[in-house]
Design goal:
alpha/beta; Purple Acid Phosphatase, chain A, domain 2; six-stranded mixed beta sheet
Length: 278
């Protein structure tokens, strides 16, 4: 089966200094979703839905995402999301800190399969593959990412490589914080990334998709050639970086091609392809 996956991150709705107007966001979302041509398609959003947990930002994000997937006839269950550090709402005293995020997720997906207030990890299986969604902000520390490895091990304890002779399923981990530092003094990475990578490799994961750094990142690691893929911000202007999204295309349990697009206000579509990687 052929599949296409659009990957967005760091939407930052509710940012008072946002450089994209609502019409710009809608135009860009439409152009991204229009790239999905395969019979099976997904939209992945890897955290930082709002700017500093802004409640109006969640409302705007729900309206924008729901209206976009409806225009493109994408089932709500094909939108996969996880929280980022901007989705930590400290005002929600005690545990959980992700009530607002969960309400937004349930509104977009029409279910609670991507809610994280009481679960630091989720595993969703569908016709395309297995998707492990991680809340790297579960510890409520804005300064770094961390994975609850015990929770991940529990989810994956009965998961292993496909038996010999059977087709390998696509297995993708989705998280907000990046795995590998980008800048020399970067301390906001996923702190227990080494253990996480070993665990994912053991269970046959071929890709890790993330955001947070607002940068285009693409490298492979280990004997399994696990792909670590980061995208730029969708809605936050960062000096020295271009806002961007990615589209992954593949079939039969493997990502075969990555197309990266830069968001721009200088084109009629609001989006321009800037890089292709096989």
């Amino acid at each position: 089966m052929k599949f296409d996956i659009a990957h967005l991150s760091d939407l930052h709705f509710g940012n008072p200094k946002a450089h994209l107007r609502r019409s710009d966001v809608s135009k860009a979302l439409d152009t991204v979703l229009a790239q999905l041509k395969a019979p099976a398609s997904l939209l992945i959003i890897s955290g930082d839905i709002t700017f500093q947990g802004n409640k109006e930002g969640y409302k705007e994000a729900a309206e924008a995402i729901k209206s976009a997937i409806e225009r493109h006839h994408m089932p709500a269950s094909n939108v996969f999301v996880c929280p980022g550090n901007h989705d930590i709402v400290i005002e929600e005293l005690g545990n959980p800190y992700f009530t607002s995020f969960d309400a937004w997720s349930a509104q977009v997906r029409n279910d609670k399969f991507c809610t994280f207030a009481n679960r630091p990890a989720r595993l969703i299986k569908n016709e395309i593959g297995d998707f492990l969604l991680l809340n790297t902000a579960y510890h409520a520390d804005h300064k770094m990412g961390l994975v609850d490895l015990a929770a991940v091990k529990e989810l994956l304890k009965n998961e292993s490589h496909a038996p010999k002779g059977e087709p390998q399923r696509l297995r993708v981990a989705i998280l907000h914080h990046h795995i590998v530092p980008v800048l020399p003094e970067d301390t906001s990475t996923t702190r227990n990334a080494y253990e996480l990578i070993g665990l994912l490799d053991k269970h046959g994961f071929s890709a890790v998709l993330h955001g947070h750094q607002h940068a285009i990142l693409d490298l492979t690691i280990g004997q399994s050639k696990m792909r670590l893929s980061g995208v730029g911000s969708f809605g936050y202007l960062t000096a020295g970086y271009m806002n961007s999204v990615a589209v992954y295309r593949g079939q039969e349990g493997a990502i075969e091609r990555v197309e990266r697009y830069g968001l721009t206000l200088d084109s009629s579509t609001g989006i321009v392809q800037i890089l292709e990687t096989n």
